[in-house]
Amino acid sequence: MSTSTAKTYSIGELAKEFDITTRSIRFYEDQQLIHPTRKGQTRIYNQRDKVRLKLILRGKRLGFSLAETGRLFELYDADKSSATQLNTIMDLIAQKKTDLNQQLEDIQAVLIELTGLEANCKEALAEIEK
Predict the structure, then answer these.
(1) Which of the chain's termini has less CB crowding within 10 Å, N or C?
(2) Helices 47-61 and 22-30 sit at what angle, rounded to 10 degrees?
């Protein structure tokens, strides 16, 4: 869909471009993260919605919750280049890094346990097969 003033997108076009379902896009709308206009029953997305959708998906890949992403959008909308916004983003990044490092430590501990269990199973199997 195009207008003479600005590029617009249908829900199907965005779903195809980002390889997600239309249901996901409607969910993000329900969460107030994107705000398409309506023409009858048809949703019409603008460039801002497209950029936000891209940021939502990037945030998900990085482990940010939708609430955290929404908070960043609110800060950006309120003051596009403030120290508050940048400090909040840095705080969220620091917390995310802390969380990921803890998950990494947990995964490493589980791998050590599994390796030990595997060795015990191999030993027991070798005894059985003698």
Answers:
(1) C
(2) 100
